[in-house]
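Record 1 of the preview.
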Amino acid sequence: MFALPGGGYFPDVRSESCHSRKLAEKARRENFPVASRLLPRRHRDHLMAVYGFARSVDDIGDDERPDDRLRLLDEIEADLARLYDGRPARLGPVGALAGTVQECSIPAEPFHRLIEANRRDQTVTRYETFDELLGYCELSANPVGHLVLYVFGEVSGPRLALSDRVCSALQVIEHCQDVGEDYRRGRVYLPEEDLRRAGCPISHLAAATTSPRLRKVVAQQAARAGTLLGEGEPIVAALSGFARTAVAGYVAGGHATLAALRSARYDILDRAVRPRRVGLLWAWARVLTTMTWPGAGLRRLPSA
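->
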């Protein structure tokens, strides 16, 4: 482990085995296949490096002591600057990116946006409108899609635009799943205007069971996420090879989780609503089947 000045720890670049095992376990608990074994090893390794960085930054913003979080985010950003300056990284999550950044020609900007999202989490705890929440997703979720496209060498303006829709949808879906956990962390990602319109006081988010009013608000966000996911789904047909396989898995994860939320009738406080593996595989097959005919995605690509 690498001790930071004033306290706090990251795995250093020499002690990654335990960290990698923990990271793989976290990846298995995600709604979508982070780095499926259907992909070649080089792609899996690059995706896990990107996921490891994003996961580590999120953990800083959520799990470290509040007084330490901004300082630790500054430290990881400083290490990222060292990497892009051609100097050796000191911290494991950044050091693991070195080969990926070089081989895939990834710019620093998406990584900085992920760090900024977690800085925002320390000061902004509620969002008035859904549009404001989407503004947060531009920092917290959309950069991940950009990084995935860089990993596969499939970056273009239209694909990035579709990726943003998919990633924002996946972020909103995760917020629907984690309403109670987020509230316990002091954050509310359900738009306040929607809570007011439904007559759902904030106190309902702390209850042991999900009230009908809260279910209504969660269902509203899930429906919005479903619309975004549908708008972004043509990206699958706009990709080729292993990129298509991977991104179809992410889209399928969104669909499978939305189905799980519907099946649970948006009861998200007294249970962990997660998609079953069979549901994910079925959705993956459907996405690949329906979005692989020539032109299926390109006809709906937005202009660059």
